[in-house]
Amino acid sequence: MDVFDVAILGDGRWHADSLTRAFARLGLEARRLRWVDLRLDATAPGGIAGPFAALPRAVVVRGMPGGSFERITLRLGLLRALEAAAVFVANPPRAIEACTDKSETSLVLRRAGLPTPDFWCCESGAAARLVAAREASPQRPLVAKPLFGAQGRGLRLICGPDDLPGEEEVAGVWYLQRYVERPGWFDLRLFVVDGRVVAAMRRENGHWITNVHQGGRGVGITAPPELAGSAVAAARALGTFFAGVDVAVDVQGRPWILEVNAMPAWKALQAASGVDVAAELAAAVARRIGAAP
């Protein structure tokens, strides 16, 4: 078994390779690991065992695939154990939990005084219909989102109760967010690393769903200072070290924070902005563990 500096957790080969090269340029060795490579082991240093002779100095969580409740619980437990063993974990498990659950994200942003749309979340179909009847109309729709969804999958515009997805489609939990009326079909993705926006893009589409995975196109932008400040505040409120912050600008020019992603991809963002996002993230991790050149 080897000794290396940084473990990259997740299944995305492109992102892991980009980070590995970025860390290598800083004199740090990084290895891509799968979640199944790790295990809790009471006889191992720090209670964590894996394909290493000693625990890495840092772990970057690039992705966490879906799985049973038991598997997700174990993965979060592994991250907590790594933190307890003085390994720098980005992002920490509490931040991943808060960002993965859209309802908690919305609640945290609201409590922090940040501009985020009104939302409702419940596991009662009758309650969801009451919300839709009271709050939704063709003029002021809501958006139904999977509570744990990503990449624009499963989004639905709600103009009334009959538009609500069925119980099976939402795994028994309805999350509804006020649709932000905007002057065109676009929104913004800002990538925050350690308290700074390092890259941003405008996502455009011929449809109200702007995610690149749903046919959207990214155009690199420089985030205005006020908008960048809101994105940094949102990332901080959720406890993230790095995050993808999604913002919609309404017809009055007011920004609204829609979501904060604690395991964001950046391939499209990097292509649009020209920023080496992996290099920015690797440099920030290196500074945090005292290994910056």
Account of the 3D structure:
The mean pLDDT is 92. It contains eight helices and 15 strands. The radius of gyration is 20 Å and the shape is globular. The strands form four sheets. It has a five-stranded antiparallel β-sheet with strand order 13-12-11-14-15. The protein is of the alpha+beta class and 293 residues long. Helix 1 packs across helix 8. The chain has three domains: 92 residues, Rossmann fold (3-Layer(aba) Sandwich); 60 residues; 94 residues, ATP-grasp fold, B domain (D-amino Acid Aminotransferase, Chain A, domain 1, 2-Layer Sandwich).
Short characterization:
With 293 residues, this protein is an alpha+beta fold. The protein is built from eight helices and 15 strands.
Features:
293 residues; alpha+beta; Rossmann fold; D-amino Acid Aminotransferase, Chain A, domain 1; 3 domains; five-stranded antiparallel β-sheet; four-stranded parallel β-sheet; 15 strands; 31% helix; globular
Reported for the largest beta sheet, the result is: 5 strands, antiparallel
Computed over alpha carbons, the radius of gyration is: 20 Å
- The level of helicity is 25-40%
Tally of strands? 15
Give the rounded overall mean pLDDT.
92
Straight-line N-to-C gap: 27 Å
H and E order? EHEEEEHEHHEHEEEEEEHEEHH
CATH T-level topology of the largest domain: D-amino Acid Aminotransferase, Chain A, domain 1
At the first level of CATH, what is the class of the largest domain? Answer: Alpha Beta
The total number of structural domains is: 3
Uncertain ranges: none
